[in-house]
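Example record used in the benchmark description.
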Amino acid sequence: MRIEPRIALRYLVAKKKQNAINIVSGVSCMAVAVVTAAMICVLSVMNGFADKIEEMFSQFDPELRIQPATGKTITLSDSLMAVLQDDDVAIVAPTIEETALVEFRGKQTPAMLKGVDTTYCELTHIDQIIIDGSYAVWDGAFERCVMGLGLANTLGIGARFISPVHLYTPKRVGRVNMLRPDENFHKAGLFISGIFAVNQAKYDDQYMLVSLPLARELFEYSEREATAVELRLKDGTSLRQTQKRLRAKLGADYVVLNRYEQQEDFFRIQMVEKWLTALLLVFILLIATLNSISSLSMLILDKKEDIRILNTMGADEAMIRRLFLIEGWLISAFGALFGTLLGLLVCGIQQHWGILRLGNGADYVLSAYPVHILPADILLVLAVVLLLGWAAAWIPAHKIKVDE
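Model output (structure tokens):
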């Protein structure tokens, strides 16, 4: 070890002539530790929320979704279906999504109608989020539907109601009948079989699942038309590699989206929130590291005699500056180390025991704050703390003059 770090470490732990220096140094170290721990905890909690929300979306969204790059519909040609019959693809399911008017006992509201085939329950985890009734869009005799909780509340309907739900969609072709406006719509009556809850307003308040043949009939789609094709991959398959391969095969006419890209706007906003929160904590960290300027300045004054002795023994001004630069940086380094350990300890306790609760636990989707520790976040926090600590130590160390 070089002489500068050894002397700096000695100065850090040794008792100073003025006890106030020890106190200020300890306060500076603890301030850095507390803010470091706070940054790790906040980033880990934000990661936890992102994981939980992604898990909610994954119960409704497919692993991969194929949709047209331009326009609204996909032609299910033999060549397209041949490409989608990839070795890593387990299920290929065309879907139709269009807006329809839903009516139940005089209450009307627009809804996003999604036509799905018989493999949809295997394609997603829709059966795991059914909170009332069961999943079924066709029972062999009658058309049925499954709708989101918010949509069901708007209509005032439950899964065990025997009155039918009526759907209205405008006709795509033909003349408009001004004398009989009701003749301008396709109509269908069906029974509700279940209600799902994704705990996301985008789905719960708008979506209603019906059978794919009924959707084709209501929106006048042929059997070779769909608005998207949804895929489920085989277990153990690399999602990224399969997505990349399908993009290369399908070309620019189609867009291949994974679950993150299907909700890109939502996750982008969440990521912005995460790093804006981290940025605010960085400003607090900056204030904490500036405390080391005062403690290092006091130490330099306390060690004036030592500086002259070191200079007499051959230490030049640059070496003495490095010595005190390392001394100031060590205050932040020890604070970063203690703060990291403290943050990991708090996150570990929260992860296993869920001490910090969300309300009383009954009115929230999650009973406790979720935690997911990412090594990249810890390394980033350490890098920021050490960089700011080095910058703060450089200011007083750079002003040392050995000839004074």
